[in-house]
């Protein structure tokens, strides 16, 4: 009898342990060591390709960072933005916020084929985007961080989701930005810190035309100088580029916030962050402290990378990032 009781309590302890382990897996946390055994040289392999691409064209770092943002905001960080159209769905590449604007797909392809040679069928395209975003920021002098991994890839993509406004337009009001970020579980602090990504890269005339001709919370000299390469009427000048950060578009610094203080934000969605609203104090804080900006940016990037990942047996590990297996 005593023996039975002992065995019974052992069995119960064992069952509880198993249930706890399974519960853990159901929660499916991402983990920075996810590929430690299955693909030990993943990080240097990715970094080398990003390094080469950015050495050839510095702006590519900005484009790769933006790819990760546009992936995560549409049905989570699942690599869906990388899918080409198929006979069964139209992908996200031609959606309003993406068409003729997101770039860097060839770099992701190069990384993927290198990683496939090293560890076939193991590393997801969604995770490659996350690592690539981190490496891009580092290469332009920004902060580093430990990237959480273990995402799997979607088998489909959604043009309508990408067009639904989940990615806010550059004409957004502050309220719209706050609501769009909140819908993804991101705070006002995350919004202001992540917008600091506009310390690198470029935007097209069509995205800031209304701001430089029609808005009043803009520095006049700045508006006039941007108008010289962005004609008032839409048409031939639509694709003319301007840097989002005036002074140092190739460095991941805090100049983006400084120029907001001077009413020199290029996009409406940039300047609304400093326009007598609830986020002004954050802009001021980041304009004064690289550490404050970096630490909030890093935290927000990790948070953005946590948006609805596919894990466990959901999704797949695509062999080619452009199409489902
Ligand atoms: C807050 C809402 C945001 C809006 C409304 C917005 C809008 C835009 C627009 C309109 C462009 C120019 C696209 C073009 O003309 O081709 C752009 C560029 C860029 N965005 Fe954002 N963005 C936002 C947030 C973010 C976030 C959260 C990130 C990343 C963490 C990001 C990273 C970038 C980068 C790096 C570029 C330059 C890309 C390049 O040069 O190829 N943006 N953004
Ligand atoms: C995307 O851009 C191409 C080339 O400019 C254009 O022909 C096409 O109509 C655009 N697609 C959508 C869905 O807007
Ligand atoms: C300025 O605003 C007016 C009125 O909303 C609009 O008709 C016009 O197209 C705008 N101009 C530019 C360059 O965006
Ligand atoms: C904010 O308010 C101040 C004082 O009322 C005003 O001078 C300024 O033009 C307003 N707008 C911006 C963008 O700071």
From TrEMBL:
Gene3D superfamilies: 1.10.520.10, Peroxidase, domain 2. It comes from the Eukaryota. The record marks 66 as: Transition state stabilizer. It is found in: Secreted. Its cofactor is Ca(2+); heme b. It catalyses: 2 a phenolic donor + H2O2 = 2 a phenolic radical donor + 2 H2O. Binds 2 calcium ions per subunit. Binds 1 heme b (iron(II)-protoporphyrin IX) group per subunit. Its main location: secreted. Substrate binds at residue 168. Ca(2+) 1 binds at residues 71, 74, 76, 78, 80, 92. Ca(2+) 2 binds at residues 199, 245, 253. Disulfide bonds join 39-119, 72-77, 125-321, 205-230. Residues 1-28 form the signal peptide. One of its GO terms (biological process) is response to oxidative stress. GO terms for cellular component: extracellular region. Residues 29-325 form the Plant heme peroxidase family profile domain. GO terms for molecular function: heme binding; lactoperoxidase activity; metal ion binding. Keywords: Calcium, Disulfide bond, Glycoprotein, Heme, Hydrogen peroxide, Iron, Metal-binding, Oxidoreductase, Peroxidase, Secreted, Signal. PANTHER family: PEROXIDASE 67-RELATED, PEROXIDASE 72-RELATED. This is Peroxidase. It comes from Arabis alpina. The lineage of its organism: Eukaryota, Viridiplantae, Streptophyta, Embryophyta, Tracheophyta.
